[in-house]
Design a protein that fits this description.
Layout lengths: L2 E12 L2 E12 L3 E5 L6 H8 L7 E6 L6 H5 L1 E4 L11 H12 L4 H9 L15 H13 L5 E5 L7 H16 L3 E6 L2 H7 L2 E6 L2 E7 H5 L4 E6 L2 H9 L4 E7 L2 E6 L5 H10 L4 E7 L3 H13 L1
Parallel strand pairs: 3-7, 3-8, 5-6, 6-7
Antiparallel strand pairs: 1-2, 1-4, 8-9, 10-12, 10-13, 11-12
Helix pairs in contact: 3-4, 4-5, 5-6
The protein binds adenosine-5'-triphosphate.
Length: about 300
């Protein structure tokens, strides 16, 4: 069984406002999924619903190919808000309390503290931990009962650069051990560095779901200039392998929808009487792809 989560037409309305609008996607075992979108795009609301903390307005989902039930939630570890630990207790003592709640064996505590790099600091009080250490302790707590899925909401928010790197490396390490990870993030580079798959959300709508690699390996765009920019623009807009065009600093940026060699494009334009003074092909980064998706949604 490889399907960990299947979401179908999930919708959440708060009054007349639609926070999550008819989204559907699946999560396959052993991958790291990024739920990517700007603030307010519906990431936390989506996570809240699939963790039974919020009632959906419409749609449904299945964990592990079963209707949601208490048993399936036991197979999931989640950190969706600031971790709640007792400040005056040690990290180890705090995890004993978590282990009691989750009915996990105390022997797991040192194992998970080691995984998150806190074993040597296990006797320190929680209140003396840095923000990054607190977040890693929360991850250790979420992993105590060896969940098959780990869900994280903005795991690097508020951390310094070193703390961010440590959390990202930790996520990759946990995934390498076979745990499926779903993380919500508004940071494109985070998703690009950590995730194998991405679901792009904007204003509650799903704009893309697929592998990060595929999203990155689109056909790119070309940047073209000519003395007669209007006829250039007109010619490009009629070419079947071009999806969108825009003007930028007297150059036309045209997004390709199939693989094309710049020399071939130059030849086609020349045959239409257009002499090109500049033609560069660019591969789009995930960031450009993301803005392109949001732009397409607005149009
Ligand atoms: N309980 C609520 N009542 C009314 N509106 C809400 C409620 N919870 C969330 N919203 C709205 O739903 C939209 C989506 O919020 P959500 O928290 O899911 O976004 P997000 O992508 O997680 O963003 P952020 O990273 O800022 O948390 C926002 O416009 C938010 O204001």
């Amino acid at each position: 069984m490889n399907k960990v989560l299947e979401i179908n037409h999930l919708t959440k309305k708060f009054g007349s406002f639609t926070a999550v609008n008819d989204i559907s996607f699946s999560v396959e075992k052993g991958n790291v999924y990024g739920l990517l979108g700007p603030n307010g795009s519906g990431k936390s609301t989506t996570l809240g619903m699939i963790l039974n903390a919020l009632n959906p307005t419409n749609g449904n989902w299945k964990w592990f190919e079963e209707e949601p039930n208490n048993n399936s939630l036991k197979r999931i570890g989640a950190i969706i808000e600031s971790p709640k630990f007792y400040p005056y207790l040690s990290a180890h003592k705090n995890l004993e309390i978590v282990a009691d709640i989750k009915e996990a064996d105390y022997s797991k505590i040192d194992e998970k503290l080691e995984l998150v790099g806190l074993l040597e600091r296990k006797k320190d009080k929680f209140q003396h931990y840095s923000l990054g250490m607190k977040q890693r302790l929360a991850i250790a707590g979420a992993l105590l009962n060896d969940p098959e899925v780990l869900i994280l909401d903005e795991p690097t928010n508020g951390l310094d650069p070193q703390g961010i790197i440590q959390i990202r490396e930790l996520i990759i390490k946990i995934a390498e051990q076979g745990t499926t990870i779903i993380l919500a993030s508004h940071l494109l580079d985070e998703v690009e560095k950590v995730c194998s798959h991405v679901v792009v959300l904007n204003q509650g709508k799903m704009l893309y779901a697929g592998s990060v690699e595929e999203m990155n390996s689109s056909f790119g765009s070309i940047e073209v200039a000519s003395t007669n920019i209007e006829s250039l623009q007109n010619a490009l807009s009629h070419l079947p392998f071009i999806s969108t065009i825009k003007n930028e600093n007297n150059k036309v940026i045209a997004v390709l929808n199939e693989e094309k060699d710049p020399a071939e494009i130059n030849k086609i334009l020349f045959e239409q009487g257009i002499v090109v003074s500049h033609l560069v092909k660019r591969k789009e980064s995930l960031e450009q792809q993301f803005f392109q998706l949001i732009q397409n949604q607005k149009n």
